[in-house]
């Protein structure tokens, strides 16, 4: 059984956009352990709780203070879009400026990891280096900004202090507020899926919590890696998570498929969820699969009464920068 590191996280996402119809020009979301707990946008113009445990534990002063902070950030971020467009010699069209900052705290080792970065139109724009306490410009157009910010040593030290000292204290507070919810364990529903007889077989787990999980394929009791591709853990609209792991068995006789099994492991759960690969258990397109898997897309949409907010998250994969959208769903 895999041993999971018990880390807690606090992240804030700021998103300003231009040229997107029927969508707020500015949105902020606060998340603890991947769960949204606060929200603001330029339409409602106030910070509101997204969890009952936040509404119960923080009073009017807290929400008014954060409302004023978000209103100030809204003006700044709208101006930042104009600045970025000038730097890239752009005029109209859809443009998005984003900021993500926060920290992770290991409640066993007490180790704290802070991060702060900005993006523009889906690419890294400004990245804070934890080692040097300086800003890095992935794009030439951002060098002017990094030169200015890196010359303000007092501001840099203030940011470092917030991420390394203040942020983890808020993590502890919010986790304590929502302990009964954030520390719960929910096992997933696991299915075996295949688009066609020649496609890879996907082991799909959904509805689990927390997002500290692992899933892999085994053959004859041994974990295998050849022909296996792991997907990312992404959120469902009910606060749970989903993930998948794919295996290519096109060169393996179907008579040997029963040697393979999909294994799901969840932090806080001592028992593995195991599904042996049997052809009769595989759902295909002909089976009218009704499971909805969140796709990787490059757009933001408003669907009926549900606002779908996409935040670009950057990850290193095979040495290349990959960006994808994580979706947060809020009842309007």
UniProtKB/TrEMBL annotation:
<dbReference type="InterPro" id="IPR007110">
    <property type="entry name" value="Ig-like_dom"/>
</dbReference>
<dbReference type="InterPro" id="IPR011161">
    <property type="entry name" value="MHC_I-like_Ag-recog"/>
</dbReference>
<dbReference type="GO" id="GO:0005615">
    <property type="term" value="C:extracellular space"/>
</dbReference>
<dbReference type="InterPro" id="IPR003597">
    <property type="entry name" value="Ig_C1-set"/>
</dbReference>
<keyword id="KW-0325">Glycoprotein</keyword>
<dbReference type="InterPro" id="IPR037055">
    <property type="entry name" value="MHC_I-like_Ag-recog_sf"/>
</dbReference>
<protein>
    <recommendedName>
        <fullName>Ig-like domain-containing protein</fullName>
    </recommendedName>
</protein>
<feature type="domain" description="Ig-like">
    <location>
        <begin position="188"/>
        <end position="274"/>
    </location>
</feature>
<dbReference type="InterPro" id="IPR013783">
    <property type="entry name" value="Ig-like_fold"/>
</dbReference>
<dbReference type="InterPro" id="IPR001039">
    <property type="entry name" value="MHC_I_a_a1/a2"/>
</dbReference>
<dbReference type="Pfam" id="PF07654">
    <property type="entry name" value="C1-set"/>
</dbReference>
<dbReference type="InterPro" id="IPR036179">
    <property type="entry name" value="Ig-like_dom_sf"/>
</dbReference>
<dbReference type="InterPro" id="IPR050208">
    <property type="entry name" value="MHC_class-I_related"/>
</dbReference>
<dbReference type="GO" id="GO:0009897">
    <property type="term" value="C:external side of plasma membrane"/>
</dbReference>
<dbReference type="Pfam" id="PF00129">
    <property type="entry name" value="MHC_I"/>
</dbReference>
<dbReference type="GO" id="GO:0006955">
    <property type="term" value="P:immune response"/>
</dbReference>
<comment type="similarity">
    <text>Belongs to the MHC class I family.</text>
</comment>
<dbReference type="InterPro" id="IPR011162">
    <property type="entry name" value="MHC_I/II-like_Ag-recog"/>
</dbReference>
């Amino acid at each position: 059984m895999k041993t999971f590191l018990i880390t807690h996280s606090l992240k804030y996402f700021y998103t300003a956009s231009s040229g997107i119809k029927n969508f707020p020009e500015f949105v902020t979301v606060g998340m603890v352990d991947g769960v949204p707990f606060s929200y603001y946008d330029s339409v409602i113009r106030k910070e509101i709780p997204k969890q009952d445990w936040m509404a119960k534990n923080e009073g009017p002063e807290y929400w008014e203070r954060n409302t004023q902070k978000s209103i100030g950030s809204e003006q700044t971020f709208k101006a930042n879009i104009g600045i970025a467009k000038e730097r890239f010699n752009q005029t109209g069209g859809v443009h998005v400026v984003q900021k993500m900052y926060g920290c992770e705290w290991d409640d066993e080792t007490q180790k704290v990891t802070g991060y702060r970065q900005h993006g523009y139109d889906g690419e890294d724009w400004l990245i804070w280096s934890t080692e040097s306490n300086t800003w890095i410009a992935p794009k030439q157009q951002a060098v002017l900004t990094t030169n200015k910010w890196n010359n303000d040593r007092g501001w840099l030290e203030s940011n470092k202090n917030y991420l390394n000292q203040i942020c983890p204290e808020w993590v502890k507070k919010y986790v304590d507020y929502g302990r009964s919810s954030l520390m719960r364990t929910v096992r997933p529903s696991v299915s075996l899926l295949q688009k066609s007889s020649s496609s890879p077989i996907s082991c799909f787990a959904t509805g689990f919590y927390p997002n500290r999980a692992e899933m892999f394929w085994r053959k004859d009791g041994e974990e295998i890696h050849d022909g296996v591709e792991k997907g990312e853990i992404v959120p469902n609209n009910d606060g749970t998570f989903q993930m998948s792991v794919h295996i290519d068995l096109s060169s393996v006789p179907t008579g040997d498929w029963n040697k393979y099994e999909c294994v799901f492991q969840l932090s806080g759960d001592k028992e593995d969820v195991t599904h042996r690969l049997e052809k009769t258990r595989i759902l295909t397109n002909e089976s009218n699969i009704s499971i909805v898997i969140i796709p990787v897309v490059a757009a933001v949409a408003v669907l009926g009464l549900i606002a779908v907010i996409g935040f670009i998250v950057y990850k290193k994969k095979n040495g290349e920068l990959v960006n994808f959208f994580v979706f947060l769903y809020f009842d309007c």
